[in-house]
Amino acid sequence: MASFDLLRSPVSFLQSRLPQILHLDVLETEQQWWKTEGVSISGAIDRAGTPWLRAFDKSGKRTDEILYPREYQTILRRGYRCGVVWRAMEENSLVPAYQLIYAISFYDPGVCCPYTVTLGTALPLAKYGAAELQARFLPQLLRKDDSAWQGATWMTEVEGGSDLGAGVKTVARPANTDGWSLTGDKYFASNAGAELAVVAARPERAAPGVRGLALFLVPRFRKNGGLNYFIRRLKDKIATRSVPTGEVELRDSEGYLLGSADLGIYLILEVLNLSRVANSMVSVALAQRAMADSLAYAECRAAFGKRILDHPLLRRQFEVRLKGLQSSFALAWEALQLLNEVWMERPPYSERYHLFRLMAHLAKYWTAEFAADTAKWAMEVHGGLGVLAEYGVERWFREAMILAIWEGTAHRQILDGLEVMERKQAHKMLFQHLGDIVPAKELQEMESEFDQLLKLPADEKEARSEAFFRQLAVLTSDRLALKYQR
Fold this sequence. Notes:
With about 475 residues, the chain is of the alpha+beta class. About 55% of the residues lie in helices and about 15% in strands. The protein has a 5-stranded mixed β-barrel. A two-stranded antiparallel sheet has the order 1-2.
């Protein structure tokens, strides 16, 4: 039983896997607050559903104000105060921010969406923004009190997000001032209402496809104080209900180019990969929470004369799933460690960066699959009660389905992973990276299998890629678990 106890606490689980935790006191304080206050608030917000949009004020003036359940700001602002954004800049490390994301996601995966996209706004601004842009906007995002601004990352339009080259119709035109004028519609705009957003758009007369895209910073308000973008409507979703996801209209909106226009797709992918690593951490934390709730239920529920946890089949399932949790965490954490090495690189990138890209795709793919499967299993542990909202476990299944789609479905991770293996030989870098913890013969056999896959005709290669990618994810996560074993 002692081996299962760490499931009850995200901080205890982190301590069981990592040799050192930065700002342990902060994590423990947050965990205690969530246990005593945050859990009930989060549950109430989830039941209240999506925030609502008030488009006009009493005088008929367009305001596009988003209204939240009263308690939402109580939860949201804690993370910003604790440093889920500002610590990355102040400490020049992403580790503290992602540790916080893990701990908070155990209790509320949805609230980490605003944290992630705000981080995904602050980092490219700090890295690629002109000095005057940074002076104007960055301090607002890095405030340590409740006045901190929020960010958003808006890439996707109604045609979908996988094929950005064909799907992004938003056009950017040089303005008379120092900026640009953006016109278009973003269909899946998470954290609508944010004070700043990074937006994918195509400069006028730019090349077709992804090479013609650029990344822009778009404020909530114009320099004259008027609305700079409009919210057409908010979406009803199965999960992340407290996060306003909406359709955003850009109408000659003031925007500012980040970096150079010819390198825009690389900046866009940097933002997406930040979110993919965060998604991986959230997925593992959600799986842990689903297991923790199942453990509490299995300890109390009796059937056929004993606790259901004491039945050999279910107990064995807990043991196997705990190993899976540890392996999934190792994969996500290794992706974070590599990201933390390369996040300040600019194109052209190093080989280490391309290794990170493959690791991020593997982590996003495998942890999301594990979270969804674990949440489904948790509902089965609860039996018929698992489908009842009052028992809470069905929420983790809803949240897991969002994680499987956000920032790229499994198909997208497989195909992008295949691309970086084919063009950059990232699988060979990965096998070198694993050389100290995987027998050489096993690596040689797998490298040979992947080399044969990459030689296949394009259609056959893609059709067969999932089995290979899954095999690689399982090998990498299982072996990395040994590295993070204490």
